[in-house]
UniProtKB/TrEMBL annotation:
Keywords: Signal. PANTHER family: UPF0173 METAL-DEPENDENT HYDROLASE YTKL. This is MBL fold metallo-hydrolase. The keyword Signal applies. The keyword Chaperone does not apply. Residues 1-36 form the signal peptide. It comes from the Bacteria. Gene3D superfamilies: Ribonuclease Z/Hydroxyacylglutathione hydrolase-like. It holds the Pfam family Lactamase_B_3.
């Protein structure tokens, strides 16, 4: 069942970089080179054999049918992804905003404590850190039930203006022939090599705060380059910041939709035919 009860009302961003997480990586699969990821999300045009509705359908949250993927915005940078086979993932899993269910998979990023947890629920089967402490790139190529998970390492800034190499990961999730990319705490635009490694992306979960992550113009550049039919904003703190991004993006000939429910059920057939931004309600702390 897709549920979106926010686990905490805490409103704080950490001011330091994350410390090493006390969890082993040895048991986690090591991926093949990043370029192989494109084989999992091949470049295709999102087309339907019939006329599709203008955006993803909202169906009862208790049902994720065959060839569908459930997506719930919990808040900040955390989404709950659910497959038809019952695999659940919480993105940027942290101690402030969590889904009400214990996910089978949790992904994390390094930038602030609102993107990782030092005390993940022990019931989580796979805890996937988006970085390594030695700054070498971490790679995932992981099948969990009917879900595939890969990643593309990217760099982040430190508080002195320097660069922490491979300090963030764009996590990619594929189920029901839909590829979802969570950009994490992205701090720079993407190269042609990055875009080739990511392959075809259908849904982008994009940080749009315009300051802590990439500036608005840079984020628009990234989203245009990815050419995904569906963009879902996250990491924007307040309506003013969100509206600044939407105003900029609306001028890019994207359709803008606001939904009252934080839940979507996606299928390949109902991806929007025109590039669309869908705003889902969630915790803004």
């Amino acid at each position: 069942m897709i549920r979106s009860i926010v686990a905490s009302t805490a409103h704080a961003l950490a001011t330091g970089l994350a410390l090493a997480l006390a969890m082993p990586l040895a048991a986690l699969p090591v991926a093949t080179p990043a370029a192989a990821q494109a084989d999992r999300c091949p470049k295709l045009v999102a087309k339907s054999p019939f006329i599709a509705p203008p955006g993803p359908r909202i169906v009862p949250a208790a049902y994720v049918g065959e060839r569908q993927v459930g997506l719930t915005y919990i808040g900040h940078s955390t989404f709950l992804i659910e497959t038809a086979g019952g695999v659940t993932v919480a993105t940027d899993y942290n101690d402030y905003v969590r889904p009400s269910v214990v996910p089978r998979v949790a992904t994390m990023n390094r930038a602030h404590s609102t993107h990782y947890s030092l005390n993940p629920d022990p019931g989580i089967e796979y805890v996937l850190k988006g970085w390594r402490e030695d700054r070498d790139p971490v790679r995932y190529d992981l099948d969990v039930g009917d879900l595939w998970i890969g990643n593309l390492p990217t760099n982040i800034r430190d508080y002195q203006g320097g660069t922490i190499r491979n300090g963030n990961s764009i996590f990619v999730f594929r189920a029901a022939d839909i590829c979802i990319a969570h950009l994490g705490h992205l701090h720079h635009t993407l190269t042609e090599e990055d875009l080739g490694a990511l392959g075809r992306i259908d849904v982008v979960l994009a940080p749009v705060d315009g300051s802590y992550t990439l500036d608005v113009d840079g984020m628009v550049e990234v989203l245009k380059a990815l050419e995904a039919p569906l963009v879902i904003p996250m990491h924007y703190f307040n309506e003013g910041t969100l509206n600044r991004f939407l105003d900029r993006f609306a001028s890019s000939q994207y359709t803008i939709e606001r939904r009252e429910s934080p839940e979507l059920v996606l299928s390949r057939e109902t991806l929007p035919m025109k590039p669309t931004v869908i705003v889902l309600p969630g915790s803004l702390y």
